[in-house]
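Forwarding the complex inputs:
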Amino acid sequence: MSLENKKLMELYRKMLLVRAMEEKHGRLLQEGKIQLMSHFGTGQEAVAVGVTGPLRQEDILFGTHRGVGEYIGKGMSAKEIWLEYMGKKTGPCKGKGTLHLCDRTLNIPGLVSSLGADFSMAVGTALASKMRKLNQVTLYFVGEGTCNQGEAHPSMCMAALWKLPVVFAVCTNQFCELSYMCDHYPTSDVAPRAAGYGIPYEIVDGQDIETTYGATAKAVEHARSGKGPYLVEYKTFRMALHFSGDPGGYVKPEDLVEWGKRDPIDLCQKKILDRRILTPEGDQKLRETVRAEVESAVEEAFAAPDPTVDDLFEDVYAERGVR
Amino acid sequence: MGRKISFLKALNEAMAEEMRRDPSVFVLGEDVRIGAFGQTAGLVKEFGEERILNTPIAENAITGVAIGAAMNGLRPVLELMFCDFAMLAMDQICNQLGQWRYVTGNQYGVPVTIRTAVGAGFRMAYGHSQSLESQLIQAPGLVLVEPATPYDAKGLLKSAIRSDDPVVFFEHKKLVLGGVEGEVPEEEYTIPFGEAVVRKPGKDATVVAFGFMVYEALNAAQELAKEGIDIEIIDPRTIVPLDKDTIFESVAKTGRLVTVEEGRIRGGLGAEIAALACGDYFSLLKAPVQRVAAPMVPIPGSPVLEDLYLPNKDSIVRAVKRVML
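Prediction (whole assembly, two chains):
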């Protein structure tokens, strides 16, 4: 599919912001200025931003801990994310979530650490949408590693059984934590599992933003129109290691070279320049603006107030205090 | 008052009344349209299949579904048939359900009520008989309820469904299936969490008993009375929050404390209360605290062995006599 210039620019800007955010996170860790471990999604930006692109504000997103792609994609700001990442009182979760990003105003209910627990939660939010007759889709964004959790199967089963408005968006980045996918999977694809529950599916290129956006838009429309769940698998490659403490040594250099030739941001940049949406100078300027946005968000977050001892005991129950 | 109904009927009435009152309440679980023990029986006739939702056999996933539905504006009442099976949902219950409000900085509360059966005595051996309440006392953010009478079952379940906090509601099988009857008013009422009841006043020793063990304690009281020992029986009704004031006001009077639960002894409910007694109320005690609980073995299926395993009237009598020495 070919996107309108305005939409393509919006997605391109978001992808640049995602990468700038993660690069900054890496530098801050190296410099010892923050403690929060990272799980970068470098190279997967067209998936994270593409799957959230077709969502409306009222649609619900469950994302992963891998980078900030889908959160930026759904509309969270650099400032909001940094306030939370640094555990500040003025963060969206008051500094109690850090990497567990959540924003109720954008219908992002949060993210889990025990991978796959949210598979069934996404079915639950979609069940509520249907029972409450809301025109609302839930998009469950998940990696192929997590799809081996037991949760995956009853979740797909119930989504199909009850014909719920949920899209399962599987980001196959070739790695399951510190292993190649082939160590965890007897097959190269995850998506055909959907067929076992009668859920339609599609497998698409995850490097091209117009493809990821287009495939997701189709799946979201399917779910919104009452036809039930849909699964899309996006093929991409994680250019980063699993997390900031990852000893590495397991990634084949030739894979980095090969997939690096189809970097999603480079591919999108080419479209932007070829279609004369931006000049090369305009592109440079945009990149500087995005980096400056990240810098100022980080500065603001460093200066923001920390929570206090009172906050430790707040929000355990609806009424203040512990029981 | 005057009207007497069963524990089972009390639970059923609580769910029906709350569903009539609030369209966001719905029931889900394995076979809830029939009701394996009967708590949810007949509800589908009034409320339809959408609000009485049969689920696949997948405890962790259906708990996740309930959590998701609660995040999106509903008040699910989830049945996990046996608490033994609730262990399959420990990630959802302990890692997610109780902690979600906190980790999201109060953006998302998850008002889920989980009803689950506890209790042995049916010769069903290790996997259908346990009382695993104490497995959940380490998890923050949960309310834990265990009623002993039809009156409490109804009033507390209604409070649980209305609560903005997640509640795990333990129903003892002997109360559900044994046809225990009690007075339950026709009129609307709820019971607040964290308020214990003195089941029997007494002056010599305080016995704190949970759920079905209240009845064993009442039987023990009759036997002890013959020997001139007058115990006070306290039924906390909610494990979390725990009504420490009522328990320790009683201990201030008697100076002696015995805890009684059907679950196992190590790290149990009694251990928690005994620790509170030692830490905060040591000066009240005239004798060491005694805990009545099950031993650290799996529940055997043999009727002979199961009866030996279970705490009962006799073990309570023995424990009270030890604190009276």
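The first strand of chain A starts at residue 60 and ends at 62.
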